[in-house]
Amino acid sequence: MKEATPSTVPYSLLGEIRALVRLYRGEPVLEDDAPGSPETVVVLGTQVLPGGRPSRTLRARALYAARLYAGGEVALVIPTGSIGKHPPSEAEIAARILREAGVPDEVVLIEEEARSTRESARLVAAMAEERGIRGVVLVTDPLHCVRAIEAFRTEGLKTRASPVYSSPMWRSTRMRREQFLREIGALLWYRLRRGSAKQRARSR
Fold first, then answer.
1. Contact criterion met (CB below 8 Å) for 148 and 117
2. Per-domain residue ranges for the chain?
3. Which residues of 56-73 are buried (b: 16+ CB within 10 A; e: fewer)?
4. Three-state SS for 10?
5. Distance between CA atoms of 181 and 140, rounded to whole angstroms?
6. Strands 53-54, 48-49: parallel, antiparallel or unpaired by DSSP?
7. Which pTM does this prediction carry?
8. CATH for 13-199, options being 2.130.10.130, 3.40.50.620, 3.30.70.120, 3.40.640.10
9. Mean pLDDT, the chain, as a whole number?
10. CA end-to-end span of the chain, whole Å?
11. pLDDT-based confidence at residue 19 (cuts at 50, 70, 90)
């Protein structure tokens, strides 16, 4: 992928936080267990505005995926994301942008039930298993990449990220700082939840 990044995200909370810090500083980070080409690209969903308008962040992600398709690097695009405050679903809006940008319907596969990154990973992994897909490339904001990689590889998929540096979440210094703090909190929360789930499983 043209903007894919070269270093890995370690399998530990401390390693993930360090990778997030590197990303925040503008250093490249990428899971190294990458799929082959042509690739399956997952467009992670985000906010839909009133009237079914895409947020600038969602539009940036979908248009980036469309550019990957136009460059001949993509065999299948999976937009993911459910209906939030405003219909239709994040996935449907992303698919609409993809079509308008010239991506044909036959290579767009919609997943519109996921309400979080974790659910996107689980549901896309099930779709991938049905189709014999072993690895995916994640299209999302740079600072979301670490958590997205963690979620998808937990579901058994070979995963790498292709960060969308054109996203307003990255281009705005204030928004980048706010997202950095949210992502640290989200990584801690995911680890705590996973630890609690394992503890409950052992006690049964």
1. yes
2. 13-199
3. bbbbbbbbbbbbbbeeeb
4. coil
5. 17
6. antiparallel
7. 0.85
8. 3.40.50.620
9. 87
10. 45
11. confident
User: How deeply is 32 buried, as exposed, middle or buried, from its count of CB atoms within 10 A (0-12, 13-18, 19+)?
Assistant: exposed
Residue among 141, 198, 129 at smallest CA distance from 168: 141
pLDDT tens digits along 80-101: 999 999 999 999 999 999 999 9
pLDDT per residue over 58-70, tens digit each? 999 999 999 999 9
Q: How far is CA 69 from CA 103, 110, 124, in A?
A: 7, 16, 19
CA angle 33, 184, 128 (to 5 degrees): 35
CA distances from 79 to 38, 109, 114 (A): 17, 7, 10
pLDDT of residue 12: 82
Tokens 């080409």 identify what position? Answer: 37
Q: With 0-12 CB in 10 A as exposed, 13-18 as middle and 19+ as buried, what is 107?
A: middle
